[in-house]
Amino acid sequence: MDNRPIGVFDSGLGGLTMVKKLIELLPSEDIVYLGDTGRVPYGSRSVETITKYAKQDAAFLVEQDIKAIVVACNTVCSVAVNELTAAFDVPIYEVIKTPAKVAAQTTKNRKIGIIGTSATIRSGAYKSALAEISTEFEVYMEACPLFVPLVEEGWADAENEVAIKATERYLRNIKQEGIDTLILGCTHYPLLIDIISRFMGENVKLIDSGAETASVVARDLHQKKMLNEAKSNGKIKYFVTDSITGFSERASLFLCSDIGESATQISLE
Ligand code: DGL
Known about the structure:
Structural class: alpha/beta
Strand order of the largest sheet: 4-3-1-2-9-10
Order of helices and strands: EHEHEHEHEHHEHHEHEHEHE
Low-confidence stretches: none
Mean pLDDT: 96
Distance between the termini: 34 Å
Largest sheet: 6 strands, parallel
Number of helices: 11
Strand content: 15-25%
Bound molecules: D-glutamic acid
Radius of gyration: 18 Å
Helix content: 40-55%
């Protein structure tokens, strides 16, 4: 038994897609969430900058006495997860291997699409993860750099014209290739799921990287006997690096519960 909280971080709102799933699977766990909203997006930055930010994020969570870190950011996992594992002496969960495995099990025609931030796509991390499973997949990738800012801006609802146009533009080529499985390789993208699934059509299965990985985190903590055995609901603390106003509003909408006063603005520099 380990009653310390689970630490989760992302550049902004996206990691909440994973928090939502963790709350569902592990309702008794306390969670400390850090969204680096003052520096989002990470995906258009250099490997050096992303690594520096990721280390600062992880160091902040370690100060909160967490029992494990969930890196709810594909961008960080693509370029800096080894640095984090080397620098911090706590279990660290990444969000790339599991969705790659799920995609490999899901596809029937072996044509898999991957969308993510520019840094994630450039890193080739998903392609390598799929190649480790089988060399027979045809992999089609597309960076979608406007998706994260759209989500952070709250422009992600099913009828948002800008998000619809951006989706058509980014996913056009991948769709033409006839993929049957699409990895949403960024934890922000499930917030655009209505638009993405409408455009791709019902024959394309969408894989949510954060939600799939949350199940693995839950199983692993259980196996390692690291779960909080309290019977009451866990407490969630939110930390952000920019104003809490917009974040609290959008997070409450997304999580379907008012996070009210529980967000705190901090500085990582
Ligand atoms: N949610 C992050 C990811 O999964 C977004 C990164 C960004 O800020 O660009 O990649």
